[in-house]
Amino acid sequence: MARRYAYLFSFRIFAGEMHQLLEKVAEMAAQETQAHITFITATRLLKAHLFKRHREYFKHAQLLIPQGRGMAWAAKRFRQPLAEVFAPSDVFMNILRSALEHKQTAFFLGAKPDTIFAAVNNLRKSFPELRIVGIHHGYYKADRAEDIATAIRKSSPSFLFIGMGYPKQERWVLQNFKPMTTTIALCVGNTFDLCAGEATRGPLWMRRMHIESLAKLNRNPLRFFRVFWLILLVFVVYWNKIFHRKKSQGLN
Asked: Which of 24, 100, 235, 236 shows a CA-CA span of 20 to 30 A to 133?
């Protein structure tokens, strides 16, 4: 049987294929138990390894899904190869199809007011029978947070899709998700912007090569500062490999 998980910097990362991931999520939904699912990139992995605040965003998640070629590279260096890496929007659409099939409900939280409503309108065209029990944008004042969490809890959705970007969406889960005992929360980044047509993905050949981040870099040069974290990741990965090799040799 193919290995389902990789262990990187003490984090358990899903290492299977898309169909296995969807089977796992469907199993969670069928059990009607609370679960937090989020995506982890190489940059986020490094920050979680180095900083307690970022570690908190991931250590309580039931499922960490690898995103980006950097994750594949790091996993391979640790001899914990991943079957594939995933785009949040692809996983999101596949889970919606499964939710529709099993008559499960969805709540959408995040993005700007106009964006989230445009996204949901487009989704309703693609999935007219999808049971949507709530919608709320992510640009609300702090004193509204508890009311929104209460509304979500009362609607008791099978899936809560949160699109606020990292780390705001993960922080929201830490602060508000605990009382929602039968809901699966999935952090989906900018997926609502994509659904609304306000953002676009890279060309298909980039997606197949898992270098879609280069297209994002071209649209937003400020993302270039993330290169610093990737360089630091390379250093930390090789430092850990050398350190553990010397440690194991010392024990022999």
From this structure: 24
Query: Is the sign of the CA dihedral 139, 141, 145, 150 positive or negative?
Result: negative
If we measure between CA atoms, which residue out of 167, 172, 99, 161 comes closest to residue 135?
Answer: 161
Walk along the chain (252 residues) and give the pLDDT tens digit of each residue.
Answer: 457 999 998 899 999 999 999 999 999 999 988 999 999 999 999 899 989 999 999 999 999 999 998 899 889 988 899 999 999 999 999 999 999 999 999 999 999 999 999 999 999 999 999 999 999 999 999 899 999 999 999 999 999 999 999 999 999 999 999 888 889 999 999 999 999 999 865 556 555 665 555 555 555 554 556 666 667 777 677 667 655 554 444 434
Q: What residue spans define the domains of the chain?
A: 5-197+206-225
Phi, psi of 12 (to 5 degrees): -90, 115
Q: How far apart are the first and last CA of the chain?
A: 32
In the chain, the amino acid numbered 227 is V
- Collapse the DSSP code of 251 into the 3-class scheme (helix H, G, I; strand E, B; otherwise coil) and give the result: helix
Q: Token pair of 244, please? A: 């553990």
Say which residues have a Cβ less than 8 Å from residue 236's Cβ, sequence separation at least 6: 46, 49, 50
In order of 16, 74, 153, 163, 220, the CA distances from 34 in angstroms are 22, 30, 12, 18, 36
Number of alpha carbons in the 13 Å side-chain half-sphere of residue 81: 2
Does the pTM of the predicted model rise above 0.70? yes
Nearest to 50 by CA among 12, 5, 9, 6: 9
